[in-house]
C-alpha cells in the first residue's frame, strides 16, 4: 500500500473510506472496476479541516491517526480478495462533499458505500452520496451494503433506458458492468417527459444493436409505465445494480432504499450514475 496525504496522482478509481463496513464493501466492489480500466484503486478518507487537533503537542493529530487506521483496514480487506490491483491511499482535509467532488475531477469512477436510508445513514446519503450522484465530474457508484441474504441466487443488472440522447452512454456502461460482473442485464424502457414512451419494438432494435458489440452479454428488454422505482420493487429476482443517467440522479435515495420500512417497499439496489 502506498500512501499520500493531500496529494492527487492522476486517473484512478476512487473509493470513499469513512471507517464503515459499507465503505469497505464499496471498496471491494471497486477492485474489479480498477482492474478493468487498468488504473489504481485510490482509497480516499476526508479528515477534519483542522490539522492541529491532537491530544498533546507530541502526538499524531487524531484525525490523521484515525484516517490511517481506517485506510489500513480497507487496504487489508482489498488484499484479502486475492486480486491484483494497485492501491493508493489519500487523506484530504475539509468538507466531505467538497473534497470528494474535487477528487472526482480526475477520476475514472468514484465509489461510496451506503447501508441504506435510516436514522444514521440517511444523513450520509443525503449529504454525500446524493451530492456526488448529482454533482460529481465522473460516474458515481453508490454501493448498497446488506447483512441479509439475497432473495434469489440470480443477480441482475438493470439499465434505465429513456428516449433521450444519453441512452447510448447508459447502455454501454450497463453492458460493460454486465460483462464485468457476469450478470444478465435488464434493459428497462421508461417514459420521459418531452420524449414520451420508448416502445418495446424500438427498445428491441436498440438492444440488438448493442449486442453486436457485446455478444457475450445476456440482455432482456422490457418496458414499463409504472416508473423505474416501482418496476425494480416489483422484480422477482434481485437487481444488484441499476445503471442510470443524470436524469435519474435525483432518484438515488429511492433506489438504494432504507434499512427497512414496515409500510413501503424499496428496491434496495446499488446505483451507477453515468456521466457523459
Oligomer: single chain
How far from one another are the termini?
A: 32 Å
Please report which band the strand proportion falls in: under 5%, 5-15%, 15-25%, 25-35%, 35-45% or over 45%: 15-25%
Spans where pLDDT lies below 50 across 5 or more residues: 3-8, 54-60, 117-126
* CATH topology-level name of the largest domain: Rossmann fold
Q: What is the structural class?
A: alpha/beta
Summarize the biggest pleated sheet: 11 strands, mixed
Provide a count of the helices: 8
Q: CATH superfamily assignment of the largest domain?
A: HUPs
What is the CATH architecture assignment of the largest domain? Answer: 3-Layer(aba) Sandwich
In round numbers, the mean pLDDT is 81
**CATH class category of the largest domain:** Alpha Beta
Q: What is the helix content?
A: 25-40%
Question: What is the tally of beta strands?
Answer: 13
What form results from the Cα inertia axes?
globular
Radius of gyration: 19 Å
- Give, in spatial order, the strands making up the sheet with the most strands: 1-4-3-2-5-6-13-12-7-8-11
- Total number of domains: 2
**N-to-C SSE series?**
EEHEHEHEHEEHEEEHEHEHE
Secondary structure layout:
Layout: E1 2-5, E2 13-16, H1 21-37, E3 41-47, H2 62-79, E4 87-93, H3 96-103, E5 109-114, H4 121-135, E6 140-144, E7 155-161, H5 167-181, E8 185-189, E9 191-192, E10 196-197, H6 200-213, E11 219-223, H7 228-234, E12 238-244, H8 252-256, E13 270-273
Parallel strand pairs: 1-4, 2-3, 2-5, 3-4, 5-6, 7-8, 7-12, 8-11, 12-13
Antiparallel strand pairs: 6-13, 9-10
Amino acid at each position: 500500500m502506498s500512501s499520500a496525504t493531500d496529494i492527487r496522482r492522476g486517473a484512478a478509481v476512487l473509493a470513499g473510506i469513512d471507517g464503515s463496513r459499507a465503505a469497505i464493501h464499496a471498496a471491494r466492489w471497486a477492485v474489479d472496476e480498477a482492474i478493468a480500466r487498468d488504473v489504481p484503486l485510490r482509497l480516499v478518507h476526508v479528515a477534519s479541516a483542522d490539522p492541529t487537533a491532537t491530544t498533546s503537542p507530541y502526538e499524531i493529530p487524531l484525525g490523521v491517526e484515525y484516517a490511517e487506521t481506517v485506510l489500513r483496514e480497507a487496504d487489508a480487506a482489498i488484499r484479502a480478495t486475492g486480486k491484483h490491483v494497485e492501491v493508493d491511499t489519500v487523506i484530504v482535509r475539509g468538507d466531505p462533499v467538497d473534497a470528494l467532488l474535487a477528487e472526482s475531477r480526475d477520476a475514472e469512477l468514484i465509489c461510496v458505500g451506503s447501508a441504506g436510508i435510516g436514522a444514521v445513514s440517511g444523513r450520509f446519503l443525503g449529504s454525500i452520496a446524493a451530492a456526488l450522484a448529482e454533482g460529481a465530474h465522473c460516474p458515481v457508484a453508490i454501493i448498497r451494503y446488506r447483512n441479509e441474504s439475497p432473495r434469489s441466487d440470480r443477480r441482475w443488472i438493470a439499465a434505465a433506458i429513456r428516449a433521450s440522447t444519453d441512452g447510448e452512454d447508459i447502455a454501454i456502461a450497463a453492458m460493460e458492468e454486465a460483462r464485468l460482473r457476469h450478470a444478465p442485464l435488464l434493459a428497462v424502457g421508461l417514459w420521459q417527459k418531452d420524449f414520451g414512451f420508448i416502445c418495446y419494438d424500438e427498445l428491441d432494435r436498440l438492444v440488438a444493436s448493442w449486442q453486436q458489440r457485446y455478444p457475450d452479454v445476456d440482455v432482456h428488454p422490457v418496458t414499463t409505465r409504472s416508473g423505474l422505482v416501482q418496476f425494480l420493487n416489483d422484480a422477482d429476482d434481485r437487481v444488484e445494480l441499476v445503471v442510470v443517467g443524470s436524469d435519474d440522479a435525483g432518484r438515488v435515495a429511492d433506489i438504494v432504499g432504507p434499512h427497512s420500512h414496515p409500510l413501503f417497499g424499496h428496491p434496495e439496489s446499488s446505483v451507477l450514475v453515468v456521466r457523459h
